[in-house]
Design a protein that fits this description.
Blueprint (H helix, E strand, L loop, with lengths): L3 E10 L2 E10 L5 E5 L6 H9 L6 E6 L2 E2 L10 E4 L11 H11 L4 H15 L14 H13 L5 E5 L7 H18 L2 E6 L2 H7 L2 E6 L2 E6 L1 H6 L4 H6 L6 E4 L4 E5 L5 E2 L9 E14 L3 E10 L9 E7 L11 E7 L4 E4 L15
Parallel strand pairs: 3-8, 3-9, 6-7, 7-8
Antiparallel strand pairs: 1-2, 1-4, 4-5, 9-10, 11-12, 12-18, 13-17, 14-15, 14-17, 15-16
Helix pairs in contact: 2-4, 3-4
Length: 352
Amino acid sequence: MSVLTLRALSKRYGRIHAVDGVNLTSGEGELLAILGPSGSGKSTIMRLVAGLEMPTSGDILIDGKSVLGIPPKDRNVAMVFQSFALYPHMSVRDNILFPLVARKVPKPLRQPKLDQVSRMLGIEDLLDRRPTRLSGGQQQKVALARALVRDPELFVFDEPLSSLDAKIRSQARAELRELHDRTGITMLYVTHDQIEALGLADRIAVINQGRLHQVGTPRELYMDPADLFVAGFVGTPPMNLLPIDDDTIAGLRPEHLRLASTASAAGDYALDLEVTVNQLEYLGSEWLAYGTVHSGLPEQGEPQQVIARLPAGTEPPFSTGDRCRFVGTHQDVRWFDRNTGKRKPAAVGAVA
């Protein structure tokens, strides 16, 4: 089990700062996800770690030793890409064995490794097929087997599930987590899909425009975002962000925006809003109510929109067009500096 460390890592393409001074350290045997929108720099970090790109400045260490200047084939970093990159003219067996052949591993040592990884991933009956005769989920397993057969120090995944359909993706996510727990290999998982990151990772590093915004467990990022970007990016639907004054924005998760008639607090609310319900969505496990705030916030140029999440056990006690009172408690509201975007350390009090 290895530890990956990025020290002030930067990569520039002309005037573009794809990665801007990132400091990040994985735990030993940790599944660490890098989460961010398209163009945020997350795939560039993956390519730097794998040795496919050279940093403009900074350092990359595996177990305390710099790997700068070491070619990809000698870093013992196994990569699994979005496209799986299987050789169509080779059988599954030959695809899996290819890294060992390229490294000139003696033939007597190859078969035990092939047997081990194919048994681990349950693909023994696929070894004589060509990749074109495999489903997306089977191709993903072959790509994982080809990476595992090297006994890597570090796994690097670049959105490996994005080409799978939703049903297979959910199953593959569970299998990938099980594979990590079984092997204990440190994994760097790059994705723009927050469901993958929240469901898979031990910790998540949120990146945007090349800069690291927050590193924490899935629960820490969801419940205690460090800034407005994390608050608005992590969570589906995202956190409600409501301007309170020139200096402060209040953040409240949709499930914490409750009808006053059902709220447990006895009237001491941080937010007390009168909302017109514009739309209701039934999603099977929950209802989403979209509304416009009419009172409870200072006057703004544009009416503020909010989303409330309600359990699906019963239908909401209101309909589209109704005006309702929604509240948020001090415990649930997060406060942000409107100018810097950073979290404020303490509540600022109820909104009049």
